């Protein structure tokens, strides 16, 4: 499966399911967002190869999935410019629910990439039997909340002062989309 999309700036990007060779690009993106200190409740980048490989092995073995956004004009690992994961919840009675996570490189934001990733993720999740997707984000992530709403997510709750980041408390917004 590979889907070509055109971003608002005219760049061609390909969306496809993850391959093992994508790991360095995926973790490079993750670590870049960790360094921004505004979108993830994580302080420490993932550098350990065993941890990266374990994540991939678990992803594949338990039928979670990850879509990568590839800029074929770039070389590895920089060619992976975004990713979306949909993972199972830990509860057996919630097998119909998927947890959505998304990361887009800073220079590829606000160009439509997040929208395309989410829409394809919803499609695949539905094909794999998911009835609902959930996600959480910081209340300070106004662009993200706007995007999630555009993709059909609704705010269903808030955890107040859930995280302490950069010297401030941040609320966690809970959202869902019934497929």
From TrEMBL:
The domain of life is: Archaea
Could you read off the lineage of the organism from its UniProt record?
Archaea, Promethearchaeati, Promethearchaeota, Promethearchaeia, Promethearchaeales
InterPro entries per the UniProt record, alphabetical: Acyl_CoA_acyltransferase (IPR016181), GNAT_dom (IPR000182)
N-acetyltransferase domain: from which residue to which, for each copy?
13-179
Q: What is this protein called?
A: N-acetyltransferase family protein
MF (Gene Ontology): acyltransferase activity, transferring groups other than amino-acyl groups
